[in-house]
Amino acid sequence: MQHHEEPLAVVTGAAGGIGRAITAELARTGHRVLAVDVTDDADPAAHATLTADLGAPEAAEEVFRGIEDRYGLPGVLINNAGIYEARDFLDYDAASYRRVFDVNAGAAFFCTQSLTRRLIAAGRPGSIVNVASISGQSGSPDAAYGASKGAVIALTRGLGQSLAPHHIRVNAVAPGLIDTPMAARIPADRVADYRARIPQGRFGDPAEVAAAVCWLAGPAAGYVTGSVLDVNGGLH
After folding, report:
1. Which of 14, 139, 164, 197 is deepest in the core (most CB within 10 A)?
2. 145 annotated active-site
3. What are the pLDDT digits (tens) for 78-91?
4. Catalytic: which of 71, 97, 145, 194?
5. What range defines the domain where residue 219 resides?
């Protein structure tokens, strides 16, 4: 196991638009970033890329065991892995429902559990930031997506309290409409409606989400835990 001066951070869903921006911003602010995704298309600023399907509950433990053995113990975890599909509520079957929850809520649950077990055993502090969504606050026509992101918000608030005695902070960002490949899958008529309702009149940039994530992850937010930071251009 190698020891380095730079803090070690893990970003899940690192190949997505927001994940790539978070990876780049963490690297820019002095972290060694381990990028985890089902594909290896991470930002080149990543220290290393790990491929895993975090929708499988046992995958998190395998990933973090390997990280600890090879790179050491991360002090920062960004739970950004997520899937979205525009599927009518009446068209969901059990498998598609479970997949959305396993990736969007389950990955955050089990990755946080795998890391915090190790941090607590080592007596080390940590900072975890979950990427939720405005859909988890106000609901969404994409019912499973909105419900899964609501679960992420409730998880954030609960763990912010229960992990605080261990000096582990847990926060979330709730992005609104962000200019990413995932957002490109939202039906066009809804996109026009959303854009008309955003007070700032535009979609957000992934770098704007990354800046909020990195602030929450870092020492400047040392007294912030169990909180959800809106990054949505004023949309409510």
Report:
1. 14
2. yes
3. 999 999 988 899 99
4. 145
5. 8-231
